[in-house]
Design brief:
2 copies of one chain form a homodimer.
Chain A (H helix, E strand, L loop, with lengths): L2 H6 L6 H10 L1 E5 L4 E3 L7 E7 L2 E7 L2 E8 L4 E2 L2 H6 L6 E4 L3 E7 H10 L4 H24 L2 H11 L1 H6 L2 H7 L4 H9 L2
Antiparallel strand pairs in A: 1-8, 2-7, 3-6, 3-8, 4-5, 4-7
Helix pairs in contact in A: 8-9
Chain A binds a DNA duplex through helix 9.
Chain lengths: ~190, ~190
DNA sequence: GCGTTTTTTTGACTTACGTCAAAAATGATG
DNA sequence: CATCATTTTTGACGTAAGTCAAAAAAACGC
């Protein structure tokens, strides 16, 4: 799924807008292990993963906590920083050699103003991310560590290949040790 | 803070749009204890609390879990149901005699289409609710029960008047018993 | 004001998961 | 392929908060 196709699934994208977006958007190739956003910096770009895998994480009490993964065909950004223009508390790291599209905040705002119909994309996307976050909160609060792991195993087995145990564990809200014990019992 | 003033803080609201919104919006008076949305029903309205206090809650394992409170000047809806048109898993209850403004989903969609600049309100509002939810998740995950209570005490003392202990407790992600013990130690 | 229901508190006990530490497995590098 | 670093597993023990149950306090209806 490429960027323009994704947008076309949400709104009609005119030829002019397509061209405009193509101009504003920059392709970026990153290597496995590369840090794309460092916490403390402002995250002023919206990324779209064309190929590869990204991880958003932060530190809590000196421990790395993975907040999200972005797989091919998904958006990625430090949402809080991107929206509020404040410094990011998250880091973004490439877990694989990846090809990204990069759209600066100011370009996006510009598009919003010049093509008001794009506000709809922003709204619909944000709504869908809200729903996902709500589901995540419910799952962290009311399901056991094992249920969350089993659920991920079913819903996103690809992730368990690309990311390592510690990343998955903190993403699921548990320690590495606990996840290892869960796996040991099949 | 009334509805129109709130909107005006986000975008310019033309006279025509104001009138339009006034026409589409219905005032609704509800009594303390009244159920406004029942889970299983679709929540097809966006509410704005002009006066009073609402509570959104759901059941998990036969236990009531308070998901949010909406105080004066705030919006309230079963977000998931409102966005997706699916049945709501939440209930909405008035914790006080309240005066609400009620805007139906279809009217809102209509406004979005006829006044594209309002998409911006939808987007900005959703963004701000996303950030709040993110903060909520972090707080549930990384702070102790006592820290969460102390924090609420500072940030929203009014809530501790209007709502009862059980509501507050499940909102903070703890049991009533635990919250009672926290309070006992000043 | 008195009895009934609802809400809050207190107590004894349980539990899922965390912590700390060390061993085993895996993988990268010259 | 031997070495060193990183990742995963295993073990012993700790703890914040949950559960169940019953008493105390507050709120409500008549």
């Amino acid at each position: 799924m490429d960027f323009i196709h994704y947008l076309e699934s949400v709104i009609k994208v005119s030829g002019i807008l397509k061209e405009e977006l193509h101009k504003l958007t920059k392709e970026r190739i990153v290597k496995k292990g590369q840090l794309i956003i460092r916490n403390g910096d402002r995250c002023a770009d919206l990324f779209f993963v064309e190929q590869g895998l990204l991880r958003g994480y932060y530190y809590n009490d000196d421990k790395e906590i993975t907040n999200w993964f972005a797989q091919e065909g998904e958006f990625a950004t430090c949402f809080y920083s991107f929206i509020s223009k404040a410094a990011s508390y998250e880091n973004i790291e490439a877990l694989d050699d990846s090809r990204l599209l990069q759209l600066p905040y100011c370009s996006l705002q510009d598009v919003y103003i010049r093509y008001p119909e794009t506000e709809r994309i922003g709204r619909v996307l944000t709504e869908s991310y809200y729903i996902k976050l709500e589901e995540r909160l419910l799952s962290l609060r009311f399901t056991t560590a094992k249920e969350r792991y089993d659920n991920l195993l079913v819903k996103n087995p690809a992730l368990l290949q690309g990311a390592q145990l510690g990343h998955i564990a903190s993403y699921l809200g548990i320690t590495q040790e606990t996840l290892s014990r869960i796996r040991a019992k099949h």
